[in-house]
Specification:
CATH class of chain A: Mainly Alpha
Number of helices of chain A: 4
Oligomer: heterodimer
Largest interface: A-B, 23 and 28 residues
Number of helices of chain B: 7
CATH superfamily of chain A: ACP-like
Structural class of chain A: mainly alpha
CATH topology of chain A: Non-ribosomal Peptide Synthetase Peptidyl Carrier Protein, Chain A
CATH topology of chain B: Aminopeptidase
CATH architecture of chain B: 3-Layer(aba) Sandwich
Chain lengths: ~80, ~220
């Protein structure tokens, strides 16, 4: 599974949404992406990609697009 | 009758233990259920420990565990009540700030469980409107209730924030069945603008009630500075 599919799966499972709703426009506050889902989401990202997110990364992760950018800083290629 | 020596002031680091009492009692909303403990799988002592660390760290504004957002009511040096406030920012919503702060303190091995819990409770909390002042964690100790202190705290908190920000409305999220708090808000002039109910009995594993309301106070009801 490539990184984009891996990230999409994390969003699908953490937010309990359909795969076709995961796109760059998906942002915090939409679907079921609330504060508690955000916790679960960032924890899954850390675990699946084996990285350690900083507080700035966690607070800045405001959309699927932004998540890709943040992971890019950690050397994850999409 | 109002207390003669009632003093209202901003919370300081010395008030952290009482602010923790206020947060926990307001979460309980007259019940024995501390929602955060249930959702995050924490004991009450562990939750207090987390709150102690969060409230003592650099004051991060824009969410409900910000110490400088709390005002304290005291009478002859004794704690009477507290009420927190924060300004809901459109760029960084309070929920994302709270998640970021809590992420530093929660046990990451419990995140799968927290994720499952989030599926049950999603939908019960109405969204806050950016640009509005939010009042949260209102609490008055039992022996000082029915003396108008909660309403005084609301009034004082709005006045103090009007000196710092401009906002068209004040909002608060509370359980509809927490009658005392709900009626106090109505008495002050708040109106219900959103109501969310979860029709799943599992909700009671996390919250004392199944319905939350977003209440609003419009500018024309603000106290005069």
């Amino acid at each position: 599974m490539d990184n984009i599919e891996k990230l999409k799966n994390i969003f699908v499972e953490s937010l309990e949404i359909k795969p076709n709703t995961v796109n760059d426009e998906l942002s915090y506050g939409s679907a079921s992406w609330d504060s508690i889902a955000h916790l679960a989401l960032v924890a899954s990202i850390e675990m699946e990609f084996d990285i350690m997110l900083s507080s700035d990364d966690v607070i800045d992760m405001s959309s699927f697009k932004k998540a890709k950018e943040i992971l890019g800083k950690h050397g994850i290629q999409f | 009758m109002m207390l003669e020596n009632l003093n209202i002031r901003q919370a300081t680091f010395n008030d952290i233990e009482f602010v923790i009492e206020a947060i926990i009692e307001s979460e309980k909303s007259g019940s024995d259920v501390i929602s955060s403990c249930k959702i995050f799988g924490l004991t009450e002592d562990k939750f207090k420990e987390v709150l102690r660390e969060v409230l003592a760290q650099d004051d991060i504004e824009g969410y409900d565990y910000c110490l400088s957002g709390f005002i304290i009511a005291e009478n002859n040096g004794e704690y009477v009540g507290a009420l927190g406030s924060f300004y809901e920012n459109s760029e960084t919503p309070s929920g994302r700030i709270k998640a970021t702060i809590l992420f530093q303190y929660l046990d990451k091995s419990k995140m799968k469980e927290i994720s499952k819990n989030s599926r049950i409770i999603k939908g019960i909390t109405p969204g806050r409107e950016p640009g509005c002042l939010q009042l949260e964690h209102g609490y008055v100790r039992e022996q000082y209730r029915r003396k108008g202190i909660f309403l005084t705290l609301i009034k004082e908190n709005i006045k103090r924030n009007l000196g710092m920000y401009s906002f068209p409305k004040v909002q608060g999220i509370l359980f509809k069945d927490n009658y005392k708090s709900y009626n106090a808000h109505l008495k002050f002039g708040y109106k219900v603008v959103d109501e969310r109910r979860v029709n799943d009995s599992e909700i009671f594993n996390f919250f004392p009630y199944d319905t939350k309301v977003l209440m609003e106070l419009n500018q024309d009801k603000f106290p005069k500075i």
